[in-house]
Every structure is written in structure tokens, then in C-alpha cells.
Amino acid sequence: MYLTKETKEEIFKKYGKDAKNTGSAEGQIALFTHRINHLTDHLKQNRKDFNTERSLVKLVGKRRSLLDYLIKKDILRYRAIVKELGLRK
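and the corresponding C-alpha cells:
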């Protein structure tokens, strides 16, 4: 399994201020980014896996909405997380 409990805790500890703070926008964005990267690698090997492709598009949309929320709420937090994760608009 690619996403274990320890991996999730590590992601939330690094980006979401605390390992138990799973609801923070930064932690959620980092988790979505990790999952998106995993699905992208999977799709490079399995080009005809259309269910995974659909899941990937949905995840990208969820991450985009969280990033839009963060822009409205606090632009500095948005810039920090985009820079840290290496995302682009």
C-alpha cells in the first residue's frame, strides 16, 4: 500500500502544523499532491486505466478548490504551500 498511516502522519506533521491536525488546508493540499503524484506515475505505466484517470482529475479539482479557498483566506499561506510543494498555476 502506497499510503500508510505513518506516511499520512509525516505529511500532516510537515505541512499541517501537527500530526493530529488533519483538517488544515495545507495538510490536505499536501496529501492530495502526494496522491496525485502516485496516480500520475501509475498512469504513465497503465495508459488505458480510465478509472484511475477519472480519479486523478477529481483529485486535481479538489486540490484546486482548496488552493482557491486558501487564496481568499490567506494569500501568504497560499504562497508558502505552493512554493514548498513546487506547484504551478
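(Above: one complete record from the training split.) The chain is about 75% helix and 0% strand.
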